[in-house]
Amino acid sequence: MIRFKSYFFVMILTVLWSCGGGEKPTNDNNSKSIFKYNQDVAVTSLDPAFAKMQSNIWAVDHLFNRLVELDDNLNIIPAIAKSWKVSDDGLVYTFEIRNDVFFHDDAVFAGGKGRKVTANDIKYSYERLLDPKTGSPGTWVFTGKLGNNPFKVVDEHTFQLTLSKPFRPMLGILSMHYLSIIPKEAIDKYGKEFRSHPVGTGPFKFKKWLENQSLFLTKNDNYFEKGLPYLDAIKVSFIGDKKTAFLEFMSGKLDFLAGIESSFVNELLQSDGSLKPDLAAKFNFQKNPFLNSEYLGIRMKMQDKSPLKKKKVRQALNFAIDRNQMLKSLRNSVGKPAISGFTPIGLPSYSAEKVKGYNFNPDKASKLLAEAGYPNGKNFPEIKLQTTKSYLDICTFITRQWTDIGIKVQIDVVEPATLRNMMSKEQVPFFRGSWIADYPDAENFFSVFYGKQPAPPNYTRFNNSKFDAFYEAAVKENDEAKRYALYQKMDQILVEEAPVIFLFYDETAQFSGKNISGLSSNAFNLLKLKNVKKERS
Length: 537
Prior knowledge:
Strand content: 15-25%
Largest sheet: 5 strands, antiparallel
CATH superfamily of one domain: Dipeptide-binding Protein, Domain 3
Number of helices: 15
Helix content: 25-40%
Distance between the termini: 27 Å
Structural class: alpha+beta
Radius of gyration: 25 Å
Oligomer: single chain
CATH architecture of one domain: Roll
């Protein structure tokens, strides 16, 4: 079956490059540098308005640009906007638009030639995102933030965004893929089918999408960053079985592999998280912080007499976990123990010195449990932890450690969509969760616990007046040092109140062939390919 899939994808690629339309190879596929990678979850839409999950986001990132974007160090950098300024009151953002950004060539334009991007395209893209007819899951990015007449075209090259109140992370939000710039002509022509006929400004342009099988993109020769990209094309396969994709990578049929899986991680990494020595001559390996905090959530508003309502019980559960051993045993040390609050490593406000969290201390856990009225777990009722299949190994490790202090926990495995729905409806008291950053500011993580937020994102229904006051002050604070100090105070409150069991801060694990260069890594786990080169064999 593995061999059949491999031949199938190669056959499809050969057929597509020999079909009419787009650039054709002069001789055969080997004359082009084609970067090949796999997504185990297939792309569902190439429309940026639906760039919610990673597979969609990666594809959209190749095809589109935003006003501003992030570099690999999470700095906001110019993209379609060449510069910007913010009014003294923090309400008006004025952007100067580049004069050399063009949409991809497409039949929607006169003569099939892509036209220049103007401020009107920015306004249209943002208004379309918010239009209920679009049905985007990304409308929340502007919720409660916009002032009257929020999107204004000053002139062809000047765009203004007006907020209702200061919101310091706004530029970070504008770097999100939901806010990619699109042409109205394409929506007028393709309508809902824009999902499968995208027209953007990015370094690569659309060629062919065989849903649930493959996606093919080609080089944009008119890209505004002159000289880029270096690659001629990208091929994305959608092999759902991670072990199969791993074998495709090991055999050289894929150029890139992201993430780890228990079925093959020991074939790539040593227990300390380093690449196996015998593979060093064949593959490149990068491991870097990923803005994702993994946790177990506790619904703070419970109707029953659950022991989880007691703060000392929640603290005891946190002290009873050997996070280092968990990561070493189950993830070959990919990830860092979450011992400094909820903000992950990689954000500038993270501080292991200023935020003191939970280390492994079973004696302290037992003491707290006794103080809560459950010495050695006596009279502690069995509780249920709900998780998904992919995290069963981690939850099993944790619950076994809790038995050492006398606490028994039943694990209930449910489908991911079912668990999310139950969390949103506040129907699950104890659940496995994670929070991946939407934009590069710790505010995004603290919004998960802001008392005025619904579920989502406040699945725990945490409500703390001091935390909320710090949060409201932080989003208005322009002084970074002062804002980070407020963030650290919020993190310490979360440690003290323990509405979650802190597990680990995630890391990316990226593997590529030795013939690949220029592949950068970033804390958003984006696959940026405009600077990548592939040495031809």
